[in-house]
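Justification of resources, computational component.

The compute hours requested in this renewal are based largely on the per-chain cost of generating structure records like the one below. Each record pairs the submitted sequence with a full structure-token output. That output is archived, and it is also reused by downstream analysis tasks.
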Amino acid sequence: MAVDSLVSQTDMFSHMRIINGMGISLCLSRLLIFVSRFIQHPSKNKISYIHSGWMLIVFLWIIQFWWDYLFESSGKTYDIYLYVLELFYVFGLFFICVTLTPDDVKEYGDYESYFFSRKKWLFSLFIFINFVQSIEGIREAYLKSDFSDMKLELWLLLSSTIVILVAMNIKRKRFQYYMIGLLILLILLDFFVLTYLMPD
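The structure output for this chain reads:
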């Protein structure tokens, strides 16, 4: 007998909400504990605006993921594949949080130097969670036989991956500031559209 037939959709949603909630809690606690260090030891830890900007972006991604999950999950049909994809997404977010919040940066000098030394790892994780999210969208479009949405998801996956790969290899600080500002604007715009302009 298939696993899907043994677990109701309500039970599956409740289970996923608990699992995702635990993952999101770990991500948020990691970020908040890290930020608290600057309050506890303001002279010891020098703030990097680039590093802080990326932390803000990841924080907004986490909030956005949790909000989107609550907003969209009622229309999802859960099975083992969607279950695994959502777990991988949360795992990816957590690894991003851990990468952004090192326990010690003495060998790097400061947080800005640390960020640029780990930038390729960090951007590779961005590609990973973007890939997982796109696969979920492609799979959902396939199940609905909506091939135009599948093509759109594939195009978005390809173009966003190319953009991340290009950004990964640009070392100019000014570019990082522009990218941080643009991403924050896009996240807030997406949140506004989803919250106020999408039909009930």
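The mean pLDDT is 83. The longest helix spans residues 9-40.
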